[in-house]
Amino acid sequence: MANHEASGKQVVLVVGGAVAGSEAVAQFTQQGILTIVMEQNPRPYGKIEDGLPRWHVKLRRQEYDKIDSKLADPNVRFIPLTKLGRDITLEEILGWGLSAVCLATGAWRDRPLPIPGIDAYVDRGFYYQNPFVYWFNHYEDPGYDGPRCEAPDGAIVVGGGLASLDVVKILQLEAVGHALKAKGLPGEMLELEHKGIKRSLDALGITMADLGVKGCTLYYRRRVEDMPLQEPPDNPTPEQMAKTGMVRRKLLQNFLEKYLFTFHERHAPVAPIVEDDGLAGLKFAETEVKDGRAVLKPGSEKEVRAPLVISSIGSIPEPLQGIEMKGELYRIKDENSGEVEGLPGVFALGNAVTGKGNIQISFKHGRLVGLHVCEYLRGRPALSPTKVAAIEAKIKSLQEKVGYSGNYKEWIAKARHFDGLSAQPERVEGVAPTV
Ligand SMILES: Cc1cc2nc3c(=O)[nH]c(=O)nc-3n(C[C@H](O)[C@H](O)[C@H](O)COP(=O)(O)OP(=O)(O)OC[C@H]3O[C@@H](n4cnc5c(N)ncnc54)[C@H](O)[C@@H]3O)c2cc1C
């Protein structure tokens, strides 16, 4: 096999070491391919660490361990704290003459909220989901110096997918948790999340009104039945669609009963309300759903004031110089191969391709594209030992720049030492939903 030729090796670069990237890495290392993993953060856990809310204690730990076991392979060269597009360009990387490059960079850009001028109010009464969840996941870390967010009672969330329900949950848990603690009552986040706010308050014989908590409100532009909380089967019949709609309604109902927030369907934000140079709320218009599209009802506008607005309408890949986009996503030939159009030997995988998904989808796509890349490499000559040595020298120089000694386990042990996870109790997780 070409990969084991005594004369040289295949060398693949994977950018992003999380669920999709690490699974592709596993496919390469099993074939004896020298695999470089370039990761922008100190730790390679991606959305598992910074997206999936931190109450998923057991799931997070399991996924961390899976990623670690794949990246600790002796055929992996890990380069942390190095961002493609900021610390090194794609053009430079392509100049290394690698056998293949895999982009497993995820979807880290919040889809812009379609209200002209709204982005001027980011951090002034307005947040996007990704930095908000990042803050929630990390603000208790010792020495945390990332974005600082507020989670005031009475906020508005614009969204409708599972991630927006997580944002709602964070707001509710923060508001109720603080109010309980202020009264000297138990308000531990993991406990509140697990039991639900309703059951926790009932057990204390207290209500949201007693606590002076109003709760947040979620606005969705279409009908409850359209919320992407549950996927229909492929090519669904009208009956199957109706059944999916009923499941979605039930899921939302359970959620409302458990976490006590307010929900409005068929409302689309149309304009900001600005006061003192900050966002003081949104104007919403009612909508009618016609052929699956939300159409604004003329004359239905109303003002909704709130101390905070959070947009949670989806995450998309960050543009990378040198990669063509097709709409919000990287332009690829097809999802099965992940081949990036116009760049032979460059592949994209995981959330970077789907722009959404869940752990399982990213894992499967990482494996699919990883296997496709192995197949692609079988037909190609290995790199000469001189070439491999030159690449190893470049890797070493990048590792030295960020103070990485070359020992993955040692590095992660230090990085995980600061992880609040170890202090949190275990509990059984539900089934991981689609986001
Ligand atoms: C609020 C929220 C809740 C969720 N809840 C669930 C759930 O309950 N169950 C579930 O299954 N899924 C859930 N998900 C989705 C799930 O976490 C993701 O779909 C999955 O983890 C994505 O994996 P990935 O490897 O494709 O991408 P990512 O995890 O995003 O990995 C991309 C990696 O690339 C790195 N990177 C990005 N750009 C660069 C660059 N330029 N240079 C170097 N490195 C770079 C990143 O740091 C990251 O490590 C949730 C997501 C969110 C946002």
CATH architecture of the largest domain: 3-Layer(aba) Sandwich
End-to-end separation in angstroms reads 40 Å
Q: Roughly how much helix do the residues carry, as a percent range?
A: 25-40%
Return residue spans where pLDDT drops below 50 for at least 5 consecutive residues. Answer: 1-5, 420-435
Q: Write down the overall mean pLDDT.
A: 92
CATH topology name of the largest domain: Rossmann fold
Which class do the helix and strand fractions yield? alpha/beta
The domain tally reads: 2
Tell the overall outline: globular
- Main sheet overview: 5 strands, parallel
CATH top level label of the largest domain: Alpha Beta
Please provide the count of β strands: 18
In short:
The chain is an alpha/beta fold and 435 residues long. It folds into two domains: 2-108 and 317-423, 3-Layer(aba) Sandwich (Rossmann fold), CATH 3.40.50; 112-314, FAD/NAD(P)-binding domain (3-Layer(bba) Sandwich), CATH 3.50.50.
Give the SSE map.
Blueprint: E1 11-15, H1 19-30, E2 34-38, H2 47-50, H3 57-71, E3 76-79, H4 90-94, E4 100-103, E5 109-110, E6 126-128, H5 129-138, E7 156-159, H6 162-182, H7 189-195, H8 197-204, H9 208-211, E8 217-219, H10 238-259, E9 262-264, E10 267-275, E11 278-290, E12 293-296, E13 302-305, E14 309-312, E15 315-316, E16 325-326, E17 329-330, E18 346-348, H11 351-354, H12 359-378, H13 385-401, H14 408-417
Parallel strand pairs: 1-2, 1-4, 2-3, 4-18, 6-14, 7-8, 7-14, 8-9
Antiparallel strand pairs: 5-15, 10-11, 11-12, 11-13, 16-17
Helix pairs in contact: 1-3, 1-12, 5-6, 7-8
The chain binds flavin-adenine dinucleotide (FAD).
